[in-house]
Amino acid sequence: MIDSKNQDIATAGWNTLAGLVSSKDDKDLDLNQIKNLLDRATTTLHDQPDHARYAMNSFIIAVGSSIKSLTTHAIAAAKKIGPVQVNMGNTACKVPDAAQYINKVKAKGALGKKRKSVKC
Prior knowledge:
Layout: H1 7-23, H2 31-44, H3 50-66, H4 71-81, H5 98-107
Helix pairs in contact: 1-3, 2-4, 3-4, 3-5, 4-5
């Protein structure tokens, strides 16, 4: 799904991955694959359409916040990517800075806390 040329399908794929890492126990996840996906997001995020870019940023936040063993890697990826620009239309919505967001979760002592469910 994340390889789709259709922006909506790629976005759904990245959002699904973010939901999985946010809700599944780490032992049930392929952490090497997730690390590879972080690396992929680092090198390809800025080449993607708006919605996919936003979803990839959310994936980085989800990994860094939900998987303690990959937090440092996710923060490094977010810093390498830098600010993510997405056309949000004529709204006050903003794209969260992934490194700052993860560090806020860390400061709250909530790293590794998993969601009980994922909502669409």
